[in-house]
Amino acid sequence: MSTTLVRHTLVFDGACPMCIRWMGRVRSWDSSRAFEYVPLQDPSIPERFPQLDPDALAREMHVVAPDGRVWAGAAAVERVVELLPLGRWVSWIFSVPLARRLGDRIYRSVAANRSRLGCGEHCGIEGQV
Asked: How far lies 100's CA from each of 55, 76, 107, in Å?
């Protein structure tokens, strides 16, 4: 009897050093293998996920559930935290009043400035995702 691992797909900007670095961290925390990590530049994205808008993908990361539900931006971060094995210890923070609104603002600000916030050639992340 074989069991197939059903995972959420985490779509991120594979051309962004900061995004690559963070996906490496998430991967290291993902001991249950809850995610498949796919850069938005993957040519299979439009066929696999026709519901995803290419412009939105360029602005923020997305998480796609096996049933097709989609989370984007700060909501995607929240979903990632919920699904990580140790995430239950910190996911409660999203239920604090105003946390989601603040999370959205922080996410949008970081995403808009990610090229300036990312690491450069010195960090050695090439090809790690």
From this structure: 23, 11, 10
Q: Mind spelling out the 3-state secondary structure of 45-88?
A: HHHHCCCCCHHHHHHCCEEECCCCCEEECHHHHHHHHHHCCCHH
User: Residues 93-117: pLDDT tens digits?
Assistant: 877 888 888 888 888 888 877 777 6
Task: Tell me the two tokens of residue 55.
Answer: 């412009």
Element (H, E) at 94: none
- Is the separation of the CB atoms in 26 and 80 below 8 Å? yes
- pTM for the model: 0.80
pLDDT in tens, 3-44: 456 799 999 999 888 889 899 999 999 999 999 999 999 999
Residue 40 to residue 124: CA distance in whole angstroms:
21
Helix (H) or strand (E) run with residue 6 in it: none
